[in-house]
Amino acid sequence: MANDPILSIRGVSKTYANGPTALEAVDLDIQRGEIFALLGPNGAGKTTLISIVCGIVVPSTGSITVDGHDALNDYKQARRRVGLVPQELSTDAFESVLATVTFSRRLFGRSGHSAYIEELLRDLSLWDKRHAKIMTLSGGMKRRVLIAKALAHEPDLLFLDEPSAGVDVALRRDMWKLVHRLRDRGVTIILTTHYIEEAEEMADRVGVIAKGKLLLVDDKAALMKKLGKRELDLTLVEPMTAIPAELEEWAPTLENEGHTLRYVFDATGERTGIPSFLRRMQELGIAFKDLETSKSSLEDIFVGLVEEKR
């Protein structure tokens, strides 16, 4: 049973009455203990999908199973296993940190006086602020309170909706340390982001979503390898105004106002085409003073995918 996904989404879509389709039919399995990044621009459908799984939005079609419980027909049991850190800083301003987090824990039927809450608040650097009213806290501290609230009932599945939006560097670092500790304890983490580097650094698998459609889901390393184009940039001695016809079979492009000749090749292919390309350049008398290769980032892959599907 250990290989059963903790979250199974089948045919889930959302169309608003007299409005647009916010989410086209999504099929997705999330494995226990993984960190999964749902990557997409603003308005892509990331928050809609999370809101459906967390019971905030009712889907138009489809089914959701959380740890074996039907999220639509057995909502309470499914929701107990889920923690959500929303984008918005919506916390009870006049309550203290400790009271707010304790209340969230009790909502799910767990005891209020708990060593776990102290450990959690210490992990999030909130223990010294436990008696402070939330209205007195900085934006970064309020974000920490939201994370503490989401984790108060010890969920197995944690959603982080745009966790780095408006967050300072110190909190981001603390948050990722906490995410790794949680994963070590067996918590499954799903984060939505439009920060490419966040997905690239943290996730085991990446899903790319745009305009309500899940375009691709893959292991991050496999995704990088599969789409692993590399660029060879040649800094020319003399700038060019046009690509010579003799080089067209390699399809290079001119960059940097004609000072750079760029050749894109497949790093995973048997032949890169670089030796023949450089040989041809030499034959044509095209001199260069510098040469640099770089691999495409997840950002390049993401932009390429989104443009391809338009």
From TrEMBL:
Organism of origin: Sphingomonas longa
Coiled coil: none
GO molecular-function term, one example from the UniProt record: ATP binding
Assigned keywords, A-Z: ATP-binding, Nucleotide-binding, Transport
Record InterPro entries: AAA+_ATPase (IPR003593), ABC_transporter-like_ATP-bd (IPR003439), ABC_transporter-like_CS (IPR017871), ABC_transporter_ATP-binding (IPR050763), P-loop_NTPase (IPR027417)
PANTHER family per the UniProt record, alphabetical: ABC TRANSPORTER ATP-BINDING PROTEIN
Gene3D superfamilies: P-loop containing nucleotide triphosphate hydrolases (3.40.50.300)
Signal peptide segment: none
Superkingdom field: Bacteria
CDD domains assigned to the protein according to its UniProt record, in alphabetical order: ABC_subfamily_A
Record domain ABC transporter: where: 7-236
Annotated protein name in UniProt: ABC transporter ATP-binding protein
